[in-house]
Amino acid sequence: GDKVPADLRLLQLKDLACDESMLTGESVAVRKHLEADAADVPLAEQCGMAFMGTLVTAGVARGLVCRTAAQTEIGRISELTRQVSLTATPLQVQLTRFARQLSILTVVIALLTLLIGNLLRGLALDDMVQAAIGIAVATIPEGLPAIVTIALAIGVQRMARQQALVRRLPSVEVLGSVDVICSDKTGTLTANAMTARQCVTAVQLHRIDGDGYNPQGSIAPEADAALIAAARVALLCNDASVSQEDGQWRLHGDPTEGALLVLARKALTNASELLEHWPRVEELPFESERRYMATLHRSDTDGVALLAVKGAPDRLIGCCDSQFGSNGPEPLELSRWQAELQRLGADGMRVMALAERRLPVDSHAEHALVEQGLCLLALVGISDPPRPEAIASIARCHQAGIRVKMITGDNPVTAAAIGAELGLNVQRVMTGAELDQLDRNGLDEAAVSVDIFARTSPANKLQLVEALQRQGRVVAMTGDGVNDAPALRQANIGIAMGGKGTDAAREAGDMVLTDDNFATIAHAVAEGRTVYDNVVKSILYILPTSLAEATVIILAILLGWTLPITPAQILWINMVTAVTLALALAFEPPEPGVMARPPRPAGQSLIGAALAGRAALVSVWAALLVFWQFSDYLSHGASVELARAVAVNTLVMIEAVYLINCRFLDASVLSPAIVRRAGPMLGAIVGVVLLQLLYSYLPWSQQLFGLESLSAADWLRLTAVALSIFVVVELEKALRRWQAAHHSARQ
Description:
By secondary structure, the chain is of the alpha/beta class. The strands form 4 sheets. Strands 7, 8, 9, 12, 13, 14, 15, 16, 17 and 18 form a 10-stranded mixed sheet that branches. The protein has an 8-stranded mixed sheet with strand order 5-24-23-22-6-19-21-20, with helices on both faces.
């Protein structure tokens, strides 16, 4: 129960075990010894040292303090974390670039309009200044910052429902651009519950299914006499217990003993009766020198004593002279057991041996009785199995073009075995020691090509994240320990575990998973892509409508006409459409196939060439329609006030219709999906129509904006004109889809 107060070189100990998960990420306690560790031994394998902040789970020890404060392993990690600076998110970079470009464009257009109108057309300077102000007001999307913030906030809310809590608002979108996820193994990709997965007896191999420490599960083939005998020993020679708390099965005791206990309860239907029938009377506890535990049980009804033994296979097999076969004890087949032991180890499993010995009822537990004459019952392969949902989520990430890399403190064999089950590339597994030998170019190559890294240090994790970022990758990093904090802070988005994570990891991360589940990351990636899509949709909506307003003013100046829309009217349009129409796009659900496309390239602009072409098409078409409406009304004798009222409402109705087009970036809106979660869009359109009615008919509004009332015929005409934008945009989308399909077919 004590915490180690400093980094210690161990001098004396008795069965010492330390939980070093905060430093290595591995939950199984490390058994310590007095032998000195070599200089190049990874942190997770340094058994002659005890490290500051780790927890003593068993035994006693005395050691010499060799490092304190910043010089300790945990101090070095804190220093690495402090040196890492926060980076801007891809969306922040793109929005900054977009704002700069739009500002320059606005200033250039306004100045050119002022000069052309005043010098070439001879128009009054004050009129041209007013026109330049109108262009600036029209071009700058005043509502964009609010829309982006609201879209991110909605993403935060949706992610919270998926058990992902976002600590920094801009991080919501980063997941949408991630192309590499570096994940810890234990508890994130795996269940963080040591589970008996295979049981080898002299008769056959049994495979065990089940979820963590839940005693419900299947065994195939069904339990026979040999397996029942092994399960009985696993039950009796055991100090662990499991209980159900808040719907979850939790272990109380050592994880390896917990795995054996759950195996016993899956195989035995009368576990409670066996415990009563074979009460424990004596015990030989585990000692690191002997590497086994034995318990003695007496049965008054059978008149015998049962010595139940579990321990390290290489130690226990040497104590056996028989094995439990189909018809009971039979001669030991040493070569077969050694082959099975090697196979289980190659599969990355921790192996325990189970054995027993029948003794006279008055016998006592002695080491001499354990170390000879045992009957070998079974070898049990134990591991922390992959989460079933993690396997599906990794496949989903691969489909989305996202590489998943496992970075763990576990040994390479176990990491490779789990990686193969998860669907990762296991052809090459690198250790932290191998990474330390690479130069910068070699590290960059390994970071990109290798999917599994084992026995890694905190510095290795940080180096891998930096190497991937040097290759232009957007990196998400998951972690739960103090050792993960530097890499969590360096990554484009750090994802900390909320359940078993440390405060240091949560503080360094941008997002916290309350369920410690990799599947949640995949859901969050889809949500991040949706947030980015909605920001792009908002810009694709605001930009052409703003440019249309500016184009109308420029056309009027070039032709020497009265302005169809005044600066005050433009400001009204921008504010109304921003708080109603554009805002509705922030609530859009994910588009179909959001996880079937690759991540967007780093450095890609918010509006690509194709979407910029659409924006130009919409802005020109809308400007021509508004200008035509204004000029046609004037040519038929209408007043300027009436013509401007028609022009303003035509532009607003065009924007309302164009909102429907913007629900999908490329897909046609003429599909059943258009009705999915269409409430925000319909509410926005109804809201803007009501606002325009108030704008058009309230006396003070008519006086303030210089308007006249519209007739029903005027409304029908401008609505019909506005609907043309829907047809134009859908035709443009269809053309783009045809070109993409044609290009794909040619390839």
